[in-house]
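Hey team,

Filing this mostly as a record. A colleague (T.K.) asked me to run one chain through the structure pipeline before their review meeting, and I want the input and output archived in the tracker in case anyone asks later how it was produced. No errors, nothing strange. Just documentation.

Input sequence:
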Amino acid sequence: MTSLSRTRHFPAECDFCQAEELIVARLNGDNFLDIAVTTTTSGQGRIYVYMRSPPIGTGEDLVFAPPVTIALPRAVRGLAVADFDGDGYNDLAAASDDPNGPELYALRNDQTGNFPTTSQFMSTWTLPGYPGDVVSLKFDTGTKPDLAVANPLHVPDSISVLRNISTPESRPEFEIRTFLRNVPQPLWEFNRLAAGKLSSDNLDDLAFNEVAHRGGVNSFLNDGAGGLLHRRDEQRNDRYYVLAIGESSLGGIDIGNLNGGTRRDVAVTESKSGEGIDLVDVLVGNGDGTFQRDASGNPIVYRFSTSPAPGFGQGPDDVIIVDLNDDGVPDLVTSNRTKDVTVLINSTPQP
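Output structure:
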């Protein structure tokens, strides 16, 4: 299984905020992967964008410029990235769970890596409940990336599906088309989700975590018509519980291939204040939306620390699986409550 080493920290440029969700994508057209992180302080929403700088190589050559700040009207949590308007540049979507007005913001890239918040570049929607996360995916065979938003405090718990109706050279536009309520109850605050291909049908699926109770990971397979099928282990008829210690909690979740081959895995952050639990937990996929178990039927969980020293990498809140250093092997990137970002370089020999 994956071996991870070499940690990098990029402190968030604010005194009171904590790094929450992040994305890793090419944002300014230079073909290098950049990092964007959402933070919240005093009710104000901020996105910090770290552009990667030369030199390019492996390991020690991960260099990022000081962050560019995007200020939004309300506190933001969820963050997604995709080329929504089809102009060849990645745009951003951010979800706010502010009780004064839960909103979704979509920001068009000005093709230089900047994301103006003027009406020409940014669109805003009011959503039901209080969105906990937003991801970009294709729900059907369409060519444009759509959005899925988790509404954990909506009654009943639901997922908003926003269909992409954007046109080139204009700000991103979406229509709220569907509320998926066919998820099993209760899901115990399913406020984090990830999109990716968990099965072999080439459709984008979803994975959820449960931030309360026993800390479960759930997978939902896309039926190709906008519906979701809850995929669980039929023999045990339960979710995949991954907590290393009781009363710790799960944070962000992502889907990707960490150990080679074609089957997708799931990574989820786990933390418990004061207990030294600052981890990324990895479940190895079977290629059908389920994950490996041992002979006793318990999930096989690989754990990696995000905190090599006190005061750094503690309280990991989100995780992304991505080849950050361009060596052809996916790495792990986490945003942490210690106002920094940890990069775990994958050193596993690939098949």
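Quick notes for T.K.: The longest strand covers residues 18-25. The two ends are 12 Å apart (CA to CA).
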